[in-house]
């Protein structure tokens, strides 16, 4: 005979169970996609957002627009640095074969799957960079500082100014307009970037050159 104490074991509601099953199914499908031949390791979402690292990927349309913009700005044979902007890096890699080179500076070591183009980067140590990353060696730097704070922007700005020959494309909150001008001499663009998930803060792009984002 079953012990009546079994009744005391907490049971998940049918709604919660269904939600859990759906979650696990989605996980399995994602893993299945990754192992199938058609999986593109550079597609947005191939590395999932980690909100604890303040990660929010751009929408596909925004990532494409920004990638196309930096390719044009870099020029033929140009070098592009993506600082804390992995979804733009991924879009650039989808254009493989175009005449440019790109690297990704990122704190999240999951992006080390991209090999030699990955450079570990912590904005708290803005100039702690590999020796082979020479000053002013990139035709354009696109950066998306992880936090909406002047401290984060100021430190990321040190990295940007070290890397770029001149051109800067900054993506950050609209509330950072004054600080962006102060630390990087950039002006707000008309283009409104979108994310795959809606953010609470209005987001904008800033440049210091004549861009296609206006």
What does this entry show, briefly?
With 214 residues, the chain is of the alpha/beta class. Helix content is 32%, strand content 18%. The protein has a seven-stranded mixed beta sheet, sandwiched between helices.
Question: What does this protein look like?
Answer:
- This protein has helices spanning 14-35, 60-74, 86-94, 150-163, 177-184, and strands at residues 78-83, 100-106, 118-120, 138-143, 164-173, 187-188, 203-207.
- The chain has a seven-stranded mixed β-sheet with strand order 3-2-1-4-5-7-6, with helices on both faces.
- The chain is an alpha/beta fold and 214 residues long.
- It contains five helices and seven strands.
- Helix 4 packs parallel to helix 5.
- 32% of the residues are buried.
- One of its GO terms (molecular function) is nucleic acid binding.
Question: What secondary-structure arrangement, pairings included, does this model have?
Answer:
Layout: H1 14-35, H2 60-74, E1 78-83, H3 86-94, E2 100-106, E3 118-120, E4 138-143, H4 150-163, E5 164-173, H5 177-184, E6 187-188, E7 203-207
Parallel strand pairs: 1-2, 1-4, 2-3, 4-5
Antiparallel strand pairs: 5-7, 6-7
Helix pairs in contact: 2-3, 4-5
Order of helices and strands: HHEHEEEHEHEE
Overall pLDDT: 83
Beta content = 15-25%
Q: How do the strands line up in the largest sheet?
A: 3-2-1-4-5-7-6
**Count of extended strands:** 7
The percent of residues in helical segments reads 25-40%
Number of helical segments?
A: 5
The major β-sheet equals: 7 strands, mixed
Gross geometry: globular
Helix/sheet category: alpha/beta
Distance between the termini: 76 Å
Q: Segments where pLDDT lies below 50 for 5+ residues?
A: 31-40, 42-47, 49-54
Task: Compute the CA-based radius of gyration.
Answer: 21 Å
């Amino acid at each position: 005979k079953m012990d009546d104490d079994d009744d005391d074991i907490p049971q998940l509601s049918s709604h919660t169970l269904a939600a859990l099953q759906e979650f696990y199914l989605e996980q399995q499908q994602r893993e299945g996609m990754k192992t199938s031949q058609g999986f593109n390791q550079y597609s947005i979402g191939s590395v999932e957002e980690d909100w604890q690292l303040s990660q929010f990927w751009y929408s596909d349309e925004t990532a494409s627009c920004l990638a196309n913009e930096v390719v044009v700005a870099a020029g033929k044979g140009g070098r592009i640095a993506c600082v804390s902007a992995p979804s733009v890096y991924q879009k650039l890699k989808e254009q493989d074969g175009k005449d440019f080179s790109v690297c990704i500076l990122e704190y999240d070591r999951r992006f080390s799957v991209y090999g030699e183009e990955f450079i570990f980067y912590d904005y708290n140590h803005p100039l702690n960079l590999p020796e082979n990353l020479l000053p002013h060696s990139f035709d354009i730097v696109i950066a998306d500082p992880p936090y909406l704070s002047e401290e984060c922007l100021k430190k990321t700005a040190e990295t940007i100014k070290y890397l770029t020959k001149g051109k800067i494309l900054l993506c950050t909150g609209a509330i950072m307009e004054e600080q962006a001008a102060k630390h990087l001499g950039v002006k707000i663009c008309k283009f409104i970037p979108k994310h795959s998930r809606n953010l609470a803060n209005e987001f904008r792009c800033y440049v210091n050159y004549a861009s296609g984002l206006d």
